[in-house]
Amino acid sequence: MPRAVWVLLFLFPAPAAASSSPDSDSLRRLHEGFAKLRSRTSPAAPEGIVCSQPFRVDSHVRGAYFRKVESVASTRYAGIRAEVLLPLVQFDPDRSFSPGPGQPAHWEGPLDRPSVYVGAHTSAKEVDAGLTWDRVYDEEGRPAFTDLPSGCDGGDRSHRFSVSRLDGRRLRPDFAFRPFWRTTAGQGNQWHNPPAGDPNYFYPGQSLVVALRVRTDGTMRLDIRPARGTGRHFTKAFPQEGFADGQESSFKRVASIDQFRVAGGSRRGNEGMDVLPTRTSVKGMVWSQVFLLTSGRPSKMSGSTCREVAGADTAKDYAVIFSINPDRDGGESLDIRPPQP
């Protein structure tokens, strides 16, 4: 049965320019912002549902509008499991890219890509794994198109095509949430996706369980499955050095608007540079039942087990960008709205 497609295209005023690293006044405002966020908790909710470890600004990370919650490091933890409701997305129509001759087809489309993922970190290595907004491919591995104005076929194959024009109508590139895993080797990152033509796509409004576990041999296993009922179940085991049995590790959950920029006529990743002004926003995402996996009973990732982390370029506007309502199981509902002028 076709799933409802809730990806909307709205028009907003252009936001103000991004700023540089936070100064002492910015950090003061950040503290105040977190205090305001915590004050939104319902009086009926139990205490300790928000991370009680001191939050931090990661001065080495910039280039995306991300909301990260990470666990403290421990030898007890072997993974993370969370239920997540995939968000609605409103794209900035002025932040889009059309590839030129010879450029990859997957570059086409929004320069802002929402992502929902989990991850693991040791003193030397890091892994990200989950879902990101990406092109849909047909069974032959060709980039797909849709006649729906949202640019997402919602899982309805009758609205997915392998041609860009149909009956004289120009079709839109087709997008959905697609699995990814980013591993580290040496000093670099390696990005991975299922092969083009793999049928595992997920859509706004779906409720999923996303889990990442370190296996006893140090390899990783990513699982993405419906939270209820039947549907696509994606699983992938992959090698990653630095996570041997007994290694002290931390785990994280992240919701973000990842960004690309155009330079010299090509699409480039924005990591390491300040976030770019955008009217793209994410609405209605929900993390729930977030647990750290152990050899015994899972532990809720809340209270003293975790901390919130802000990027260097978004810290001063954190309370404006992220609208957060915590829940009692280590999760939260979340909107991401880059600041407007």
Write the layout of secondary structure elements.
Blueprint (H helix, E strand, L loop, with lengths): L23 H16 L16 E3 L5 E8 L7 E7 L2 E3 L5 E2 L11 E2 L1 E10 L4 E10 L9 E2 L13 E2 L3 E2 L2 E2 L1 E2 L1 E11 L2 E5 L14 E8 L5 E7 L7 E5 L11 E14 L2 E4 L11 E13 L5 E2 L5 E6 L6 H4 E5 L5 E5 L5
Parallel strand pairs: 1-23
Antiparallel strand pairs: 2-19, 2-23, 3-16, 3-21, 4-21, 5-6, 7-8, 7-19, 8-14, 9-10, 9-13, 11-12, 14-15, 16-17, 17-18, 19-20, 21-22, 21-25, 24-25
Largest sheet: number of strands, sense, barrel closure: 9 strands, mixed
Can you identify the CATH class? Mainly Beta
DSSP strand tally: 25
SSE topology string: HEEEEEEEEEEEEEEEEEEEEEEEHEE
Describe this structure in words.
The protein has 341 residues and is mainly beta. It has two helices and 25 strands. The protein has a single domain, classed as Jelly Rolls (Sandwich). The chain has helices at 24-39, 318-321, and strands spanning 56-58, 64-71, 79-85, 88-90, 96-97, 109-110, 112-121, 126-135, 145-146, 160-161, 165-166, 169-170, 172-173, 175-185, 188-192, 207-214, 220-226, 234-238, 250-263, 266-269, 281-293, 299-300, 306-311, 322-326, 332-336. The strands form five sheets. Strands 1, 2, 7, 8, 14, 15, 19, 20 and 23 form a nine-stranded mixed β-sheet that branches. Strands 3, 4, 16, 17, 18, 21, 22, 24 and 25 form a nine-stranded antiparallel β-sheet that branches. A three-stranded antiparallel β-sheet has the order 10-9-13, with no helix packed on it. Strand 17 (220-226) and strand 18 form a beta hairpin.
